[in-house]
């Protein structure tokens, strides 16, 4: 898909911006703290109606204002020309697609894919398993409504079971939640097994391009416990009750799974060099984009937040050659991108205001 225009009102530090995009490469140029990432955050919000960097939507509303709005006109492989309107208020969000109110957000999620490349992504390799699980969940849930439902059911029921464990609930009460947890856990393990196997091929291919075939990189699914059936999970949960009561928390299950990342057969977190780690996170994002495209037929818009300038010239060139040449790219930076990255429509960003093409010849 391609974004043709983006209008923001009271989004973060942006009072009002109406941007028209003509080509497929837009660059947002400005000093630190001016609103570049805010703009990408708004574009990314269209995918799953959540921010890629904030858990609470309230922080997206400009200080002192009642609500924020995003309006986007885009070309879409399946839907044709589409207009999306999102209103974000402290009480919740509202959504319209072509003037029609979308009540069931599950019907919407995944239709308008974007993939964010951010300097924070190094945490995917260096940080805790939580970040890698979130990457996997967002990737799989965006293309698979059944995965999203299993994840929601599972997460909710585990939270309820944990609350019970904390207040010393009865065996019967625990058992009631386990009836929901068990089938969802079996479903998640199966879908994660299949999903990671498919994504592993994409990651290996993307890494080989970004790192110039220097060494192989792999991702692997390491379930905390690989029960294949709901009956198996029921038994495991029942057996674990005494220990879980002691720790006041559900100790085993897919909420403790790991997505193992390795370079040349060794754990990337401990053994990969900084350059290899950077290549690996780029490969994870490229794989995510390829997966979205393959599964849905819709080409995701790529949102590159200050990453092009961070890469050394050789890696940048290789990364760029690995990017889908037909995809729209919205990128930010404090200086213009190198000439080998093609022709950009440049917007200067200052204090939440956007000026078109100011940077192009400057
Ligand atoms: N809800 C809000 N209301 C008003 N201003 C906000 C809000 N949230 C963030 N800001 C402001 O937005 C600015 C940050 O913008 P942004 O994160 O887009 O920076 P950036 O241009 O990407 O800079 P960098 O290059 O440092 O990443 C800060 O000045 C911050 O105070």
TrEMBL record:
Gene3D superfamilies: P-loop containing nucleotide triphosphate hydrolases, RecF/RecN/SMC, N-terminal domain. It comes from the Bacteria. ATP binds at residues 30-37. Pfam families: SMC_N. One of its GO terms (molecular function) is single-stranded DNA binding. Keywords: ATP-binding, Cytoplasm, DNA damage, DNA repair, DNA replication, DNA-binding, Nucleotide-binding, SOS response. GO terms for cellular component: cytoplasm. PROSITE patterns: RECF_1. Residues 3-326 form the RecF/RecN/SMC N-terminal domain. PANTHER family: DNA REPLICATION AND REPAIR PROTEIN RECF. The RecF protein is involved in DNA metabolism; it is required for DNA replication and normal SOS inducibility. RecF binds preferentially to single-stranded, linear DNA. It also seems to bind ATP. This is DNA replication and repair protein RecF. It comes from Horticoccus luteus.
């Amino acid at each position: 898909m391609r974004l043709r225009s983006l209008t923001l009102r009271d989004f973060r530090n942006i009072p009002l911006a109406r941007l028209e995009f003509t080509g497929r490469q837009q660059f947002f140029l400005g000093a630190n703290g001016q609103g570049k990432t805010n703009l990408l955050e708004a574009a990314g919000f269209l995918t799953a109606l959540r921010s890629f960097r904030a858990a609470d939507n309230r922080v997206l509303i400009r200080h002192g204002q009642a609500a924020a709005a995003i309006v986007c006109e885009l070309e879409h492989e399946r839907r044709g020309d589409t207009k999306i309107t999102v209103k974000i208020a402290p009480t919740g969000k509202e959504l319209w697609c072509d003037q029609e109110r979308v009540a069931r957000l599950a019907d919407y999620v995944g239709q308008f894919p974007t993939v964010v490349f951010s300097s924070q992504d190094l945490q995917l390799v260096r940080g805790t398993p939580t970040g890698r699980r979130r990457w996997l969940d967002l990737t799989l849930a965006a293309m698979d409504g059944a995965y999203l439902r299993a994840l929601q059911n599972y997460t909710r029921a585990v939270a309820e079971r944990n609350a019970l464990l904390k207040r010393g609930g009865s065996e019967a009460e625990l058992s009631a939640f386990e009836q929901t947890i068990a089938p969802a856990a079996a479903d998640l393990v199966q879908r994660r097994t299949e999903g990671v196997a498919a994504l592993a091929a994409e990651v290996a291919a993307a890494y080989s391009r970004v790192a110039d075939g220097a060494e192989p990189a792999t991702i692997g699914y390491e379930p905390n416990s690989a029960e294949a059936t709901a009956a198996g999970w029921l038994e495991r949960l029942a057996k674990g009750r005494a220990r879980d009561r002691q720790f006041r928390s559900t100790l085993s299950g897919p909420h403790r799974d790991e997505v193992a990342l390795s370079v040349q057969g060794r754990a990337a977190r401990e053994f990969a060099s900084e350059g290899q780690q950077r290549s690996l996170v780029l490969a994870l994002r490229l794989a995510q984009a390829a997966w979205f495209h393959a599964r849905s037929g819709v080409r995701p818009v790529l949102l590159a937040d200050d990453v092009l300038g961070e890469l050394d010239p050789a890696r940048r060139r290789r990364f760029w050659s690995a990017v889908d040449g037909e995809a729209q790219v919205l990128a930010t930076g404090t200086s213009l991108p190198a000439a080998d990255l093609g022709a950009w429509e440049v917007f200067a960003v200052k204090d939440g205001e956007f000026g078109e093409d100011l940077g192009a010849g400057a």
